[in-house]
Amino acid sequence: MAKLAIIGGGISGLAAGIYAQMNGIESEIFESHSVVGGQCTSWKRKGFHIDNCVHWMTGTSPQKEIYKVWQEVGVIQDPEKDIIRHDYFLQVDIDGVKAHVWRDLEKMRQELLSIAPEDHKEINNLIKLIKKFQAIELPSMFPQEQMGFCRNMKMLFKMLKVIPAFAKYKKLTLEEYAKLSKSPIIHQIIYNYVPKQFYVISAFYMYAMFSMGNADLPRGGSDTITNRMRDKYLSLGGKISVKKKALNTEIDNKKITKINFTDGTSVEPDYVVIATDLKVAFDLIGHNYMDNNLKQAFANTKTHPVFSNITIYFGVDCPTNDIPTMEIFNCEPYKIVDREHNVVIVNNYADQPGFAPEGKGIIQILMVQHDDEYQYWENLYKDPEAYKAEKQRIASEIQQRLEKHYPQYQGKLSLVEICTPKSFNRYLGSYKGSYMGFIQTPYAPKLVHHGNVEGIDNLCLAGQWLQTPGGLPNALVTGKFAIQRLIKRFHLADKFRQTN
The domain containing residue 39 runs over which residues? Predict the structure, then answer.
């Protein structure tokens, strides 16, 4: 059996390991952290469960290819029990006026028209666009170069409905598209919780996936995804070594011949998958192997920016069933890194079993941080007292606004956890603290990397950074694609097997 070393035990690494074992390739995952999961992570704090990843998961519709992949890796086992479905994606509250992104698009259209009749033209157009983008599919069975003529034509046929919309809106950011409407409610529905320079097509796609039942929550959050993939991998005979941080690689005759770890050990694999952030990957093999497209992506923060979050978790001394699962409300302005914010984004975990002690609740606050703000947190972290004080200040500012918006929680909120972009970087090695990949913008073509590295034949890359804008589905499929590429390149199996 061939020996495959997988560097990185996140979703991509686990997917690569699962499909390697399915195809008779002996593999071992080397993870720098004490647990696998990567960005798909959670932990316990003060009796509460902290989930710092999943806000929604693409691939919950049996009609889409990626649903089958989630099944194959063990994440979706019983759809009725494993998936939490909501009637609406989020609630927006601007000065007491509430609007929703409903799964029922006609209901959403009627509600928005009643709130902002002056925007009737753009509201009707938005609903039409969301319906059209329901046809979009993330290719999940084979990497593009292995799809063949028939599969490519089938994919193109599905895209025909949206090609005119791509042509019309391909140069617009979320902010520019939102300006076509007058109502601040519509603006906030478009912006939701991602940066305003994000490609507007991504918003159409996101709401299309939700409205058609292809974007929901896994019951148990990040733990369900990570633990089930880990268990699937181990059940197939895979091996996991944790606290094994790769230091560098030795390359000879266009092959990685040795991987050295910081603990002084090393392995000599036949094949390698690096399933980490791209910055980490090229730190290991040498930046001289980075192709021009990736070099330009890292160099140009306008065309390929990244973003992170400050995430704050408040325990609530009572159940939180009376507030939306996700809500964005406007508030008195507050400053973070000299940038003014005037909304609060709340995730409520009331429907996740075991996330809070009996009779209590836990809510998460999201605050977007741009890549040019990361250096502030990097510098501040060097002064532990100042770093701690700033986190406390921000938490206090947010708590005041929460208690004003939810008066029933006055005196019932307690700070459980706060993470900054530096937290993501410190614990996960994330480039500039980003928990996704490069942002898709209208300033450059969509980044889709083939995972191959010119000059290193026995290596394939995997991970969300290979396809903008990253996220769980891209992490999943690129792990799978890495194995398909290695199998075809080295004839490691007569046919790629996708099920046991």
Answer: 3-43+220-302+442-490
